Each structure stands twice: as structure tokens, then as C-alpha cells.
Amino acid sequence: MIPAPFAYARPTTVDEALQAIADGGEDVKVLAGGQSLIPVMRLRLAAPETVVDLGKVEGLRGVRDDGDAIVIGAMTTHSDVLADPLIAEHAPLIAEATGTVADRQVRHRGTFGGALVHADPAGDLPAVALALDAEFVIVGPGGRRTVPASEFFLDYLTTAVGEGELLVEVRVPKLAGSWGMHYEKFNRVAQAWSIVAVAAVVRRENGRITEARVGLTNMGPTPLRARQVEEALAGAEATAEAVAAASERAADGTEPSSDLNAQADYRQHLARVLTRRAVSTAAGL
Amino acid sequence: MTPITVRVDGATYADDVEPRTLLVHYLREQLGKVGTVVGCDTSNCGACTVHLDGEAVKSCTVLAVQADGCEVTTIEGVASGGDLHPVQKAFNEMHGLQCGYCTPGMIMASIDLLEDNPDPSDDEVREGIEGNLCRCTGYQNIVRAVRHAAAEMRGGADGHVVPAQVDTAAAPHVVGQA
Ligand SMILES: Cc1cc2nc3c(=O)[nH]c(=O)nc-3n(C[C@H](O)[C@H](O)[C@H](O)COP(=O)(O)OP(=O)(O)OC[C@H]3O[C@@H](n4cnc5c(N)ncnc54)[C@H](O)[C@@H]3O)c2cc1C
Ligand code: FES
Ligand code: FES
After folding, report:
1. Quick one: average pLDDT of B78-100?
2. Which domains does chain A have, with CATH numbers?
3. Those residues with Cβ within 8 angstroms of residue A45's Cβ, 6 or more apart along the chain or in another chain
4. Residue B175: Cβ-neighbour burial (10 angstroms; 0-12, 13-18, 19+)
5. What is the CATH number of the domain that holds B63?
6. Is the pLDDT of residue B164 over 80?
7. Is the pLDDT of residue A244 over 70?
8. Is A36 near chain B, with CB under 8 Å?
9. Distance (Å) from the C-alpha of residue B127 to the closest C-alpha of chain A?
10. Is B53 in the same domain as B90?
11. If you count DSSP H runs as helices and E runs as strands, how many of each does chain B have, helices first?
């Protein structure tokens, strides 16, 4: 099927893009890589009046060094992310998770920002952004604001990016030295979406885990932090036993969905197992 | 209607298109490049794979207007003169197809993979073309064809390609995640 007709705007600056969104009528959609939007438009699950294409907007693509953080432009494609030296050095978790997203063709078009704003519960990057305590830079008619990851993912397919606004970049604090990280994903053959996945970021010093951050993919309508696991790990000995004991709490308080791929209780089982694996690898165990 | 200028298989086209036109439909219906086919409605099958500015993409999941100013290569543009591309030749020689419907996309995805990785292992081929579905071959001979082409393109004899073996186990990377 082909999409329903729409008006098309192709701005070249962020200001022009905001204006095009403001002028676009009732139902305006921003087009980034189109790898989520075009499929839903083809199925006529979305039929926007106007599509504002960010493809030619300058300054949204690429990664830069900003002192204690790296800044990833919203239009940086998944394949750009995989090849980027700053990400490889300061936030390898992002590249690891991005490598599991979809397939080569989709990764050539799909963008880092698009995947985060789309906020699919099974999408891989939201839980990673949450575990890395990333910050989201959003612009709109009212100016520019920065939203922490903990306040970005509001509900199913819903983020802090409001109507008329754009995500322009994401700041990711540099974590070096004693930090380790790992993304552990469980999915079916030839269907890349996560049934459940876990992003673990662990700081290890003198045989102890001093801090752990655990992000859960597809354990509810939004990505989650496994706070009970994080609390149990803080200060724990870096041993397989301690990690296994803490990981038992990974599904506490979660209400994952049941669908064709997995029942809720199976997802909770997966969360515990994958958390143990993700944290163990991140801690170098 | 939106004006676009696109270079496709070496020729430049200037056209007016409806913004909702998918690149694959522009190629097939407006330019007559029917070598690129549509196999699904969900961006999963990869039959429609073309190269956009040198990168493999699913042309059913790109709007024609997004290709404005870009260079597109389809399966119809990979042979030079009467000589098939080494990947085309390898699919033929290694029986990498049965009905052939997935083949244009498989070949375009494989060429893209070999540009990044000129000597992929079996697993790397399987991972590299995971965005392409074949309902006939069981993939075994497709993997052989891609490795055969890789050897050919590296210059020289078909080094490590071994005959297809009967192996019904899932790919190792999947086992590793379970
Ligand atoms: C076959 C297939 C398999 C996939 N498998 C996976 C997978 O395993 N894991 C995974 O994580 N993802 C997967 N994806 C999705 C992929 O990651 C997409 O790239 C991503 O979800 C959307 O990015 P995009 O740039 O294509 O966004 P688009 O499709 O262009 O946009 C998505 C949504 O975000 C909005 N938006 C985009 N950018 C901005 C911005 N800068 N500001 C404001 N709003 C914006 C759009 O309006 C739209 O609503 C898959 C997709 C396909 C087609
Ligand atoms: S036609 Fe199936 S992915 Fe494009
Ligand atoms: S040869 Fe028939 S689908 Fe691949």
C-alpha cells in the first residue's frame, strides 16, 4: 500500500523546520529516517496532513566532543553511530545496541533521534539512553530546553517532545576508566525487535561494584530502570553470586505486555536472566 | 507535485512526483526499472533493496522525494556492458536462487555487504543480509554465492568456499543469545 496524500515540506534549517511544523495544519509529522514513519503511513495507521522532512536540515547529523559529554545529532544514522570513534570510546553501549537494530538497510536510513522520539517499547536505544543518563535537547517555538532521560519517556510511543517541537541532539556523559557496559538482547531469528533486552552500565573499583545502572527494554510501555537491582548492586562485591542475587529483582514492579512473542511472566523471567548476563559482562565477570 | 532530480543507473532524470510516491514505485512505474521488486508491505523482506548514494536501502521505505539530488543504483545498473557483476554471476553459478523473486534485493544487499567486508564468514554473510528474506532456497546456496563472489572480487580463485552441508541448526549468533 502507499501512504495517503500529504503536503510535503523540505526545510534546510531548524528555524524553517519549526515554521513548517507550525504552518502544517492539524496533523503534522516530522520525517527523520522514515524507517518507522513510512511503514505506519503505508499501512495507513498514520495519515498526516503535512510531512516535514528533516533530511536536508543542516547541523543535525554527526557526533561532537563537548568536554565531559559527547553530543549526538538527532539525524545521525544508525550506521553513522556504528562507525563513530567518539561513541566507540566514550559510550560503546550505544554502538553495541545499535548493531542489533534491524538490518543494514534500515540502519543506513534510520536515525538515533528518530528511534528515541518514536519510543517503541521494543526499541533498543531508549533503555540505553536511560542507563547512560543521557540528556535530550529539544527546540520549539518557546526556545530550547534540556530534558533528562528519566523525564523523557512518558508513555507508550510518547516522549517529552511536544507538538511543534523537535529533538535536535542528545548529550551523553562520558564514562571512562572504571566503567564497563553491555547490552544483552533476546529476539527471534530474522526479527530483530527485542522480546526483552537489558542495558547495563557498571562502575567497578577494588573488587566492588560502586555504581550500577540497569535499563530494561520492552518490560512495559516505556523503558525502565531496574532500581531494585541497582540498589542491591551498589557497594556489592563484584562476584557472580552477588550479581545473580541482585538480578533476581530485575522484574520487581514491572508489568510487561503479553503478545505473540512472549507472555508477561516469561518476559519477567527473561529480564532476570538477561540482567544477570548484562551486569556480569559489564562488570568484567 | 514536487520536482526531483535523481541519477539512476548512470542516467539523470528530472521529474515531478507526488510526495507520497515510494522510491520503488517511482523506479518501476515512472522509470520502467522493473528489476527492483516489491515483496511485502512491512519493510521486512528486502526484495526492493537498491543503493542510495552507495548504501543499501529498502526502496519501499524511502519516499521518491527523499532521493532528490541523490544517486540510485538498481539491479539493472550493476552489470557493466554485457558482463554480469561478480555477485550476479555467483548467484547463477552457486544456484543462489529458485524462483528468483528475492534475488535482485539479495544481490544489492550482498554487494553493499562486500564493500564493508570483502571476506565475510558464513555467519557474517547471514548477519549481513538479515534484512532480506528468501522463501525458496533455505539460504544455504545464497551464502555460498556471496562467499564465492567475495573470493572472486578479492582477485583470484575461489578459495574457501565449501559445498553446501545439511545443517538445520539455527545460526550460532542466535544460539548465543538464547
Ligand atoms: C524492518 C525493521 C526492523 C526494525 N528493527 C528494529 C530493532 O530491532 N530495534 C530498534 O530499536 N528499532 C528497529 N527498527 C526501527 C528503527 O530503529 C527506526 O530507525 C527508528 O525506530 C525510527 O527512526 P527513523 O529515523 O527512521 O524515524 P522516523 O520513522 O522518520 O520517525 C519516527 C517518529 O519519530 C518522530 N521524529 C523523528 N525524528 C524526530 C526529531 N528529530 N524530532 C521530533 N520528532 C522526530 C517522527 O515524527 C515519527 O513519529 C526497525 C525498523 C524496521 C523497518
Ligand atoms: S518490499 Fe519488502 S522490504 Fe521493501
Ligand atoms: S529464490 Fe524464491 S524467494 Fe528467494
Report:
1. 96
2. 7-56 (3.30.43.10), 63-173 (3.30.465.10), 179-282 (3.30.390.50)
3. none
4. exposed
5. 3.10.20.30
6. no
7. yes
8. no
9. 8
10. no
11. 6, 5
**Residue numbers in B near A189 (CB within 8 A):** 170-171, 174
Set of cell numbers at residue B137? 532456497
Q: Provide the angle, in degrees to the nearest 10, between the axes of the packed helices B86-93 and B103-116.
A: 120
Residue A140, H or E segment? strand A135-140
Residue B129 belongs to a domain:
yes
- Residue B171 domain flag: no
- Which residue among B44, B48, B95, B99 is best mutated to probe the pocket of ligand 3, counting the most ligand atoms within 8 A of its Cβ? B99
Residue A35 above 60 pLDDT? Answer: yes
Nearest to B177 among A4, A34, A185 (CB): A185
List the single residue in A4, A5, A108 with the smallest CB-CB distance to B56.
A108
Is any Cβ of chain B less than 8 angstroms from the Cβ of A50? no
What is the domain extent for residue B39?
Answer: 2-77
Whether the predicted pLDDT of B151 surpasses 60: yes
How many structural domains compose chain B?
Answer: 2
Report the gap between the CA of A139 and the closest CA in chain B (Å). 24
Q: What is the pLDDT of residues A128-157, one digit of tens each?
A: 999 999 999 999 999 999 999 999 999 999
Choose the residue to mutate in B38, B103, B139, B142 for probing ligand 3, maximizing ligand atoms within 8 Å of C-beta.
B103
Nearest C-alpha neighbor of A45 from the set A102, A4, A106: A4
User: pLDDT tens digit string along B40-53?
Assistant: 999 999 999 999 99
- Distance CA(A197)–CA(A91), nearest Å, equals 18
Helix/strand/coil for A98: helix
Subunit contact A34:B22, Cβ cutoff 8 A = no
Residue B169 falls within a domain, yes or no?
no
ipTM score: 0.95
Is residue A74 within 8 A of residue A167, CB to CB? The reply is yes
Q: Which of A4, A38, A185 sits opposite B63 (nearest CB)?
A: A38
